[in-house]
Design brief:
106 residues
Length: 106
């Protein structure tokens, strides 16, 4: 059982690190904040934003959970829900990245 838990943690770490690196790369290249969206001037732009949202979504969700409210406080409910969603999403992203890696490797 320990192997399965470590494998799941490794897959989440891969997904979260790819999401974080992708988010910072997107923000650096496009000079705008990364956010979950599906809009675009063209169809290709909309598809690009959708792909960015799927790949970079876990990191964006973690950032959204740590935003302060109007009184300068953190909502613990918001932080916990965003963390659960982000780590679940990171697992799916990590599975996708690892499957692409293994498909190209072997």
């Amino acid at each position: 059982m320990t192997r399965e838990l470590l494998l799941a943690a490794f897959i989440m770490c891969v997904g979260l690190s790819v999401a974080g690196a992708g988010t910072h790369l997107y923000q650096w290249l496009s000079r705008q904040e990364a956010m979950l969206r599906m809009d675009g001037r063209t169809v290709l732009g909309a598809v690009g934003h959708l792909v960015m949202s799927v790949v970079c979504g876990p990191y964006i969700m973690l950032q959204m959970g740590w935003r302060q409210e109007s009184g300068g406080t953190l909502s613990m409910t918001s932080a916990l829900i965003s963390a659960v969603v982000a780590f679940g999403w990171a697992f799916v992203t990590g599975l996708f990245i690892m499957s692409v890696y293994l498909a190209l490797r072997f």
